[in-house]
Amino acid sequence: MFAPHLATALLLIASSAFGSRAGVQHLLRQQADTNSTNSFDVASCPGYSLDSLTSTKNGLTAKLNLAGAACNAFGTDVANLTIQVTYESQSRLHVNIFDTANSQFTIPESIVARPTASGSSNAHNSDLVFNYDATPFAFWITRRSAPNATPLFDTRVSSLPPTPIAPVIVGDNSTALDGFPLVFENQYLQLASSLPLGANVYGLGEVVASSGIRRDVGTDGGVGTIQNDWARDIADPIDQNIYGVHPIYMEHRFNSTTNTSQSHGVFLFNAAGADILLLTPPSSNVSLIEYRLLGGTLDFYFISGPTPQTVMEQYAEIVGTPTWQPYWGFGFHLCRWGYPNITAVKEVVAKMRAANIPLETMWNDIDLYHAVRDFTSDPVSFPPAEMKAFIAELHQNNQHYIPIVDAAIAKQVNSTDIYDPYSKGTDLDVFIKNPDGTEYIGQVWPGYTVFPDWFAPNALAWWTEGLKNWTAAGINFSGIWLDMNEASSFCDGSCGTGIDISNTSTPFLLPGVPGNLLTNYPEGYNLTISGPSGNITVNGTLTFDAPAPATLSARGIGAGNQTDVELNAPPYTIHNANGRLSIHALATNATHTGGYAELDTHNLWGLMEAEATHKALKTLLPGQRPFIISRSAFASAGKWAGHWLGDNFSQWKYMYLSIQGILQHQMFQIPFVGADTCGFNDNSDEELCNRWMQLAAFTPFYRNHNIKGAISQEPFVWDSVANASRTAIAVRYALLPYWYSLFANASLSGTPPVRALFWEFPNEPELFAVDRQFMVGSDILVTPVLTPNVSSVDGIFPGRGKTVWRDWYTHDVLDAVVGANTTLAAPLGHINVHVRDGAALLLHETPAYTVEETRQGAFALLVTQSADGHAFGKTYLDDGISDPPGPSTTVTVQASKSSVKISGVGKFHVAQKLTQVTILGVTKKPATVTVGGKTVKSTYASAQQQLVLTGLSVDLNANAGTTIAWK
Q1: CA atoms within 13 A on the CB side of 936
Q2: Dist. CA 565–CA 296, nearest whole Å
């Protein structure tokens, strides 16, 4: 949750659209150090020459020597480099270019473990081939199966003309760095590769991209994308750096002659602040990707695919597969910043129950805290004893509780101020320091703060103790929510020494207080239609038209131990939208244990906190899967936590943009992800919240959350939203076995649970940019309404007429336009969901109020046969909580023209029976239907070619196979 920098506080207060602790965008970029400039002509840099090549069992190693006079563009040229090329597996090629002296920062194995090479791959059997020119050194990667085709990655681009780029900061008049040679300096690295003109590039994040899921590569002489890699606490700006850093991209190439496609991936294993540019030079027949890095090494992993799904699975082999999620985590979660006390929270829980809107997990934001300090609860508003009793009641009702944990730890104000997390952390030496060894002080919600140093040997034990003491004090949580962990600080770098630490106020006004009231109407609210209703409740009336006056009253409450480097103002200025790297962050010369500098480790902070929290929960909740949602992330963070898409806005475009964020993070191997449903910042309204609650029911992490001072947006606030929510949650809970199986596959193999349409249909170019629809697994297609004042929606249905799509609710076959949009009815409260032919989905027959109660009910089966009678599905079942996962049973369903075979394999005992089976695609009414050889009654609907069997009692355990047959 974001708060403005002090220098812009007055400007922010003046506009009611800004001023949230999580939702304030900087209106102006901060002026960078005037000594920083990006105008150096790097075309004069000499590049490198290769010699001393030695072949190895699995690749080669060689020296790269500076090929001329040093240019020292943004630092000091490194004269001697080493290149190591390793064929690590048949599908993965590792190319690492590093300084021979090993003085540059590299990510320690303790943070992100390197993948293990197979040992059997080499230059003769790999899918990928490394090629090179010795002088000037350049390399390119080709497919073994197509050695003469356009290379997948090709650095032979140094002579291409420069392309102007956007200014780094306001007032910076620099243009492009001329040319694209290999540059390797102690504070600046540069490498570029050609791409096919207008390439289909996906990934590179985290970002809210105006171009959609497919990244813009620019047109003649233009820069399409500047992806900045510097983790930043900011409210979801478009086309700027935000919370996470993921330097992985996938490129998808389509051959129109053969009507076939192939995908591959490129991952740069480097945590440095960086610009990654996608551009097209003037009058060029290629596009480019260019890396500009503040340090580290050029450590690339190339993965061969060749399908979108296999690219992601191969990336998981590098960074690790996602953590196992507990079954209950797929339920509906509810939170807001601004619940004033435990009574208000209890009332919300009671109102959800009274409205019969399933609530799985109740969350608390920083309102919970005493003096806004981690690991506390306010003794007046959230008394520990009352909190303990409240959470116990939730648990008794099969519900859960999650509190927030902020990144910063309050510094004790005086000698009488006893705050154990600080005093114990000081004793154990677990906080980040200034370069002179003194305590580094920042400023966050509790006032002046310190920050955990995850490199410190005692940090994990201290963190675990803090969480343990919190549970002992009554906050018996089921999981943890990690926020502000970029890490964020309100000072511009260090707050300094000798400051008045007794001042615990924030340097700006919080939302909802006098001077910063959230008085704006919801987006597009038309005052002439509904009047100045204090509740902004329109009872189903569409109100998106012209903006109303803002008159609403307030509603309630080391660079690797290097020397001779500039840590505070690196010579190359990356496109950090805040300006200086220390603004709203820690100072880049802050020092970690081992001598690591914040400049090098900044992008790793959120990842390391997530890992520490995961390990702490393993200790505190033994045998249970840690449930963690984190805002900041780096490559491999999915091993430890899920993610939410940060501080979005209650606007229609942000509902749409949430889809690309969810798809991005499938690629990043953080599949358990979702947006703040109905929007976080500003006031939501009935229609937007109605549509969003339904959309989010088909995303992995499903939570409604909004800002302090805004109107309430819990789903019971509006009757139409309550009805829409009940409908959507019922579908979600029926599909829980399917969701759970998709995430089991993700944890086992890295297979993405939520998918862009072209990931399933890679040879249909009309799908390559589609991000207003998405698929859940391979079988469910979701077409949400993303605009106001409409009762229909357009969607494209893949398969070009060869795939049959059926309506989820009616089972009617969709008469879809081939290769173009089909218009679907979409009245308010209805979200279009379609099932693909060939699917076999095991479902919960009767969704209940909680996930656990739903799980205790019987199963149903939905089979959608293709034209030849085929359908197939697998469902993974276990106890839903054990970590590591315990015994499991996989239920396989295989259909042919006139039968469905059901079998289970595994040691987990499935107590619930299969009691209902629906088979679609049965072309005529059967004369007889048998289950396990015994004749049963059935019903048949010819319009849907639907055969329904009820009253069954089919055992799904191993050695209990059952065949359903008809004739």
Answers
A1: 23
A2: 13
Q: Which residue reads 């010795």 in tokens?
A: 134
Q: CA-to-CA distance for 965 and 967, rounded, in angstroms?
A: 7
Write out the H or E segment, with its range, that includes residue 842: strand 839-844
The rounded distance, in Å, linking the Cα atoms of 650 and 523 is: 7
pLDDT computed for residue 502 by the predictor: 85
CA angle centred on 531, ends 526 and 532, rounded to 5°: 100
What residues pair up with 60 in beta bridges, in sequence order? 55, 85
* Among 669, 841, 635, residue whose Cα is nearest residue 752: 669
Beta bridge mates, 289: 193, 278
pLDDT at residue number 13: 29
For the beta sheet containing 48-56, the strands, ordered from the edge strand earlier in sequence to the opposite edge, are: 48-56, 59-66, 80-89, 92-99, 298-303, 260-268, 246-255, 200-205, 214-215
Nearest to 922 by CA among 902, 938, 903: 938
The CA distance from 776 to 782, in Å, is 8
Q: Where are the alpha helices (DSSP H) in 670-718?
A: 686-696
| 42-316 placed in CATH 2.60.40.1760 | yes
Q: Give the pLDDT confidence score for residue 15 in this predicted structure.
A: 30
Among the listed residues 501, 825, 579, 830, the one whose alpha carbon sits nearest the alpha carbon of residue 33:
579
**328 is written with which tokens?**
């209950």
Outline which parts of the chain fall under CATH 2.60.40.1760.
Answer: 42-316
Write out the residue limits of the CATH 2.60.40.1180 domain(s) in the chain. Answer: 739-832, 839-966
Is residue 685 among the annotated active site residues? no
CA distance 309 to 262: 11
Q: Can you read off the two tokens belonging to residue 637?
A: 């963070």
Q: What is the pLDDT of residue 562?
A: 76
Q: What span, in angstroms and rounded, lies between the C-alpha atoms of 875 and 51? A: 55
Residue 360 contacts residue 401 (beta carbons within 8 Å) = no
The pLDDT of residue 552:
45
Q: Determine the topology of domain 839-966 in CATH.
A: Immunoglobulin-like (2.60.40)
8 Å CB contact between 859 and 752: no
Q: Among 154, 299, 647, 676, which one carries the catalytic annotation?
A: 647
Report the chain (967 residues): mean pLDDT per 10 consecutive residues.
45 30 30 45 88 95 97 94 98 98 95 92 95 97 95 92 66 51 95 97 98 96 95 97 98 97 98 97 94 97 98 98 98 98 98 98 98 98 98 98 98 93 98 96 97 98 98 98 98 89 86 83 72 44 54 43 84 94 96 96 98 98 98 98 98 98 98 98 96 98 97 97 98 98 98 98 98 98 97 98 98 97 98 98 98 98 97 98 97 97 97 98 97 97 98 94 96
Distance CA 349, CA 359 (A): 8
Residue at 915: amino acid letter: T
Q: Find out whether 577 and 240 touch, Cβ atoms under 8 Å.
A: yes
Please name the residues in contact with 500: beta carbons below 8 A apart, sequence gap of 6 or more: none
Measure the CA–CA gap between 648 and 760, rounded to whole angstroms: 29
Choosing from 486, 686, 714, 852, the catalytic residue is 486
Report whether 42 contacts 179 (CB < 8 A): yes
Partner residues linked to 205 by β-bridges: 246
Q: Rounded distance, CA 643 to CA 482, Å?
A: 9
Residue 483 annotated in active site = yes
The DSSP H or E segment spanning 783 is strand 780-783
The SS3 of residue 56 is: strand
CATH 2.60.40.1180 fits 739-832, yes or no: yes
Provide the 3-class DSSP secondary structure of residue 346. Answer: helix
* Tokens coding 208: 């809210």
Residue 178, pLDDT score? 60
Instruction: Say which of 88, 251, 483, 609 is annotated catalytic.
Output: 483
Question: How big is the chain, counted in residues?
Answer: 967
Is 290 catalytic? The answer is no
The residues near 831 (Cβ < 8 Å, ≥ 6 apart) are: 691, 694, 695, 697, 698, 728, 782, 783, 784, 785
